[in-house]
Specification:
With about 1100 residues, the chain is mainly α. It is built from 48 helices and no strands. The longest helix is centred in the first third of the chain and has 44 residues, at about 225-270. It holds the Pfam family SCD.
Length: about 1100
């Protein structure tokens, strides 16, 4: 066993290797080659195949690194074309640009060029063979040329010489290049080889000249150390074998025809209707065809043992992929010869390959074999040997491999129904709930084949299928959401749209258990939603190929909506009344009317069914106080109001319902406000129910009740004054008030902005904001809805530039006090809350994190809409690194959006955030910042990320960078308290004259590499100007290291070379007190003022 075989053994799975040892009964891999030469003996492929392989083809160094490329022309018959005219007896394909290689590269005159080559072969066979072999050398990306005289040529020696002179540093060669001239080379190369064999199949491939030399050259190239030679030659040899397989199949067909003719001729001879001359001719033809067929088989076997057996486990993944792909073609096209375990085992072993493309080629090669009756029956042993691996591949990390594996398992089940056990099927069942849509549908195909087999159209059979579906969903225990299961099956199984069968099962009392009814309702609702809207489940990745047929899809959705409406409109009220007591079932059933085609109510009994639905909705809202159910019910009412026909009946019902809810709310609110301090629990429950209903109505429609504001506001005032009540009542009250403001504003704008309406609206707006401030102050947490409502109102009233002057009077500007309160509320509830989450389950933790993210997003919305200054948002960015895993995406989006809106304000915001974070570090470390500490390292990391957000447009980023550097220098060089003198980071005591924020220069140091050279000079001058006014002792080197680092980042050409800056820091300290004379190193000629500078730089 050589070194490469040992490496492959390590990579193979133990079970697969055991299978290999068990199945491998092929001949040895040693063979002795014989070269056929013109005028000499032909290669005996049968003898070579019996010897088992070519010993020269197996070299231990085949995967060693290629040797250093040598300059000049290699010796020994290999060199570069020298030019000159065409010699007599040569073929024009001798040069790279013309002939075969040029035709294949251009892909335009392939057939004509190969016709010309065949003609030249008949006249000048030696020159034609030379040009053909030279074509394959050029196709490897090698410029070397072969000797003219190939008599007794030693191809392994020639390949070694070509390898020595081949420059493989670039790694590009024609079949892998993607440039303009080579993007179609690979396909043209394959087509050219097939075209060559097709044109030579009559005689040339059987004359023992061209084919022998070509095969020997390709085999020698496949054993080369150079990847370009090995890859190209393997590709060519295997494509050559594929072309020869087609020839072998054609010869087999001719043999069958000859046999039939011989049988017919024998019958004629028995009847004495024919002489023996025709029989003799047929027998001679039969012998010739058998001889050619046997020779082709021997060549195929020789190439397989000399190329495939060694290259199917090559270190280059594409070589392995080509090997498996072509083997699959051979087995499919010529199963009579290749459909044997001795060939199939290579596909089985490659199923364990580490590269997904190779595994995909293996599965793709097997899938069609199980669909053909003539091949499927011969795969039983192979299937048993590799069943475990094939089943596990449905869970492959590569989606394409997993999809093909599901298709393969479906085909295997159809051929061998008893082979797969329940344990084998479970991994396939689980893939129905996969995130990838294609994989889920492939698994659903298996599910349809094994579990949901379509029988006759009888009602009993349809009932059974639906029950099996519910049982599968109920007992799977893989996923608790039916939308994924529905999405996987809805396109492949028509039972998912059998609405009438589902309704009948739900209405009959003895068909389903109570738990099964809930699961069926969930499945039915999910199927109705997807069938009528075409929306895929949230989180499922669906890749659509090709242009979307929008018109056709919309037409199909419209037709399905009509079919669903015809089934559910008569029975939806009946279903709601039957399951009225079950909250989950009612919540699902209430969504079905939103999928109706409302025009269907114009049919017979449509008005009756609509009234039944409205009465059912009334009952639902009376029986259930659930937010989700009431929101869905009011959404259905709003939908019914959009259609002229249904609105005539639904609007009076909605008005009556609103009056009922308003009466309930007025009574409960009056009772609540009338109590002293402690409300009655029953009154509080009635008030909460009324608030939920009115909030649900307001979410979907304008109730047009002006007195609603005066009813709700006293409730909020009473709670803020100290009256005890549930937090949910306060949250719902604030939500109702904010919705009332939005509807009032909308009506005011529609009416043209009457003075009385504007005055009233301004008063209510101010009342709401004051009450909201009070709620945020009195309630430390749990009032996220109140904060959201305040943000929505502030954004809504922030700008009315596109409206009349009267409407512009409603514009509200946020005061500094309110902005400060909003900021502190977010700080306390998002970044400052340190709740113990150890006792919370995963769901509670997710909900808490969702609330925090929602609060932060709402606050960022204020900044993005210009309600608060960007500098206020800097207080959120100060936590960028510390809370990056939780809120990094929100804060990053804030930075990018503000940058696109106003780059200068964005720069000031980033600068302010860094200074705030620096002050936090000072507070945490007791007043002194250690630049070598972990906390300061996080601060520098934040500066790096901020610098990346500036962008790569140097023209647009010059002004923002100037702001950051100027503000940073001013902040860092501020004079501090001279009494503070803690130890510095390098052991010496800090001088009293050193500014306390000097280490902040190491923060803005991270922005230096973004400056262009002239801007660095401007910042450098500004820095020197500021430092020159300070008293710097000559012994203060250690205390001013941050300054030296920052200054050198403005003078060094490579600003991010920290080590070179640090090493030169002490030696350059004299620059602190001694001004640099002359132009200086690295300083451009001429005055800095003469270069084109922008405003911030000129200000510096």
């Amino acid at each position: 066993m050589n070194e490469f075989e040992f490496e492959i053994l390590v990579e193979l799975d133990r079970d697969a290797w055991a299978t290999r040892r068990e199945m491998d009964s092929g001949p040895s891999d040693q063979m002795t080659p014989r070269m056929a030469t013109r005028g000499g003996p032909r290669v005996n492929y049968a003898e070579l195949n019996q010897s088992g392989g070519n010993s020269q083809m197996k070299t231990k160094a085949c995967f060693a690194l290629p040797p250093q490329s040598r300059r000049g022309r290699p010796r020994g018959g290999v060199g570069r074309p020298r030019g000159g005219g065409r010699k007599a007896g040569t073929f024009p394909g001798d040069t790279e640009e013309r002939g075969l290689f040029g035709a294949v590269r251009n892909g335009r005159t392939l057939e004509a060029t190969f016709d010309e080559w065949v003609s030249s072969y008949e006249t000048y066979p030696d020159a034609a063979i030379h040009s053909l072999l030279q074509f394959f050398i050029y196709s490897c990306g090698c410029k070397g040329t072969l000797e003219r005289n190939l008599y007794n040529a030693d191809f392994p020696k020639i390949v070694r010489q070509l390898t020595e002179g081949f420059d493989e540093e670039s790694g590009d060669y024609p079949i892998v290049m993607t440039g303009q001239h080579y993007k179609k080379f690979r396909q043209n190369f394959s087509d050219g080889i097939h075209l060559l064999v097709n044109k030579c199949k009559a005689s040339i491939i059987h004359d023992g000249q061209m084919m022998d030399k070509l095969v020997q050259l390709l085999i020698a190239l496949t054993d080369s150390q150079a990847r370009a030679f090995r890859h190209t030659a393997t590709f060519a040899a295997l494509k050559l074998s594929s072309a020869l397989v087609d020839v072998a199949v054609e010869l087999n067909e001719q043999q069958e025809k000859i046999k039939k003719l011989i049988e017919a001729e024998k019958s004629k001879m028995k009847q004495q209707k024919s002489t023996g001359e025709k029989m003799d001719e047929l027998m001679r033809m039969k012998g010739d065809i058998e001889e050619k067929s046997e020779e082709i088989k021997q060549i195929l076997s020789y190439i397989f043992k000399s190329v495939f057996v060694h290259r199917y486990r090559d270190v280059v993944p594409d070589i392995r992929s080509v090997c498996i792909s072509e083997l699959g073609v051979w087995i499919l096209v010529y199963p009579h010869y290749f459909l044997e375990d001795s060939y199939l085992k290579y596909i089985g072993w490659s199923l364990h390959d580490k590269v997904p493309d190779v595994r995909h080629k293996c599965i793709s090669a097997l899938v069609p074999l199980y669909t053909r009756p003539d091949t499927a029956g011969k795969l039983e042993l192979f299937t048993h040997k590799f069943k475990e691996r094939l089943v596990s591949m449905v869970m492959d990390k590569d989606n394409d491999v997993a999809i093909q594996s599901c298709h393969l398992m479906t085909n295997i089940y159809r051929v061998f129904p008893t082979l797969l056990t329940v344990k084998d099927c479970i991994p396939i069942y689980e893939q129905v709930y996969a995130n990838h849509g294609g994989l889920a549908r492939a698994a659903a195909e298996f599910l349809n084949c094994k579990v949901f087999q379509q029988g006759d159209d009888s009602i009993e059979n349809q009932y059974k299928l639906i029950k099996d579906l519910v049982t599968f969903f109920q007992e799977g225990e893989v996923h608790d959401h039916a939308a994924y299961l529905v999405d996987a099956l809805i396109e492949s199984n028509r039972m998912m749209k059998e609405w009438q069968i589902m309704v009948d099962l739900l209405l009959l009392d003895d068909q389903l258990e109570e738990s099964s009814e809930g699961h069926l309702i969930e499945i039915m609702v999910c199927a109705a939603r997807q069938a009528t809207s075409g929306e895929f489940p949230v989180g499922r990745l669906v890749v659509k190929r090709g242009a979307p047929a929008v018109v056709k899809e919309l037409r199909l959705l419209k037709e399905e909506k009509k079919r669903l409406s015809a089934v559910f409109i008569p029975v939806i009220a009946q279903l709601l009344h039957k399951f009225m007591a079950d909250r989950e079932k009612v919540a699902n059933l209430m969504t079905i009317p939103s999928f109706f085609a409302l025009d269907a109510y114009t049919s017979a009994n449509g008005e009756k069914h609509l009234k039944e639905l409205l009465e059912a909705i009334r009952t639902v809202m009376e029986r259930h106080a659930d937010d989700e159910i009431m929101s869905t019910a009011t959404e259905v009412l709003a939908l019914l109001g959009t259609n002229t026909l249904t609105a005539q009946i639904s609007e009076p019902f909605s008005i009556a319902l609103i009056d009922t809810v308003m009466l309930q709310l007025r009574t409960a609110a009056t009772s609540f406000a009338g109590d002293a301090t402690q409300g009655d629990e029953e009154d509080e429950a009635q008030l909460l129910s009324a608030f939920r209903k009115i909030a649900a109505l307001l979410t979907n429609m304008d109730v047009r009740r002006p007195e609603l504001w005066d009813i709700v506001l006293p409730v909020v005032t009473a709670i803020t004054d100290g009256k005890h009540a549930a937090t949910e009542i306060l949250e719902l009250s604030m939500n109702v008030l904010s919705l009332c403001l939005e509807y009032d504003l909308h009506r005011t704008i529609e009416e043209g902005g009457k003075a009385d309406a504007i005055k009233k609206l301004k008063k209510r707006r101010d009342q709401f904001i004051v009450v909201g401030e009070t709620v945020m102050q009195t309630m430390a947490s749990g009032v996220e809805t109140t904060f959201k409502c305040i943000v929505d109102v502030l954004v809504t009233f922030s700008s009315f530039d596109d409206h009349s002057d009267s409407i512009r009077q409603l514009t509200y500007s946020v005061s500094k006090d309110l902005a400060s309160k909003l900021r502190r509320f977010v700080d306390d509830n998002v970044f400052g809350s340190h709740e113990d989450t150890s006792s919370l389950d995963q769901t509670s933790e997710i909900e808490m994190m969702h609330r925090k993210r929602s609060l932060l997003a709402q606050y960022c919305k204020l900044a993005l809409h210009g309600v608060i200054p960007y500098l206020e948002a800097a207080h959120m960015l100060r936590h960028y690194v510390k809370f990056y895993s939780d809120f990094g995406d929100i804060l990053k989006l804030l930075i990018l959006k503000t940058r696109d809106t106003d780059r200068m304000a964005n720069a000031r915001m980033l600068s302010a955030a860094l200074k705030l974070a620096y002050e936090d570090v000072k507070a945490e470390t007791g007043g002194y910042v250690d630049p070598d500490g972990d906390v300061f390292s996080d601060l520098r990391d934040m500066a790096k990320r901020f610098a990346q957000s500036i962008g790569h447009d140097y023209e647009k980023s010059r002004d923002p960078l100037a702001v950051i550097h100027r503000d940073g220098i001013m902040f860092a060089l501020e004079e501090g308290d001279p009494t503070i003198a803690p130890s510095s980071r390098r052991g010496a005591k800090r001088s009293s004259t050193a500014p306390p924020n000097l280490s902040y220069l190491e923060v803005i140091y991270e922005f230096s590499h973004k400056l262009i050279r002239q801007d660095k000079q401007a910042v450098y001058n500004y820095l020197e100007k500021k430092v020159s006014t300070m008293d710097v002792p000559p012994t203060a080197e250690n205390q001013w290291q941050s300054y030296i680092l920052y200054k050198n980042s403005l003078t060094e050409r490579v600003a991010d070379d920290n080590m070179s800056i640090i090493s030169s820091a002490v030696s350059n300290f004299s620059l602190l007190t001694t001004p640099r004379g002359g132009r200086g190193r690295g300083r451009p000629r001429g005055s800095i003022a003469g270069s084109r500078m922008m405003t911030p730089m000129s200000e510096i």
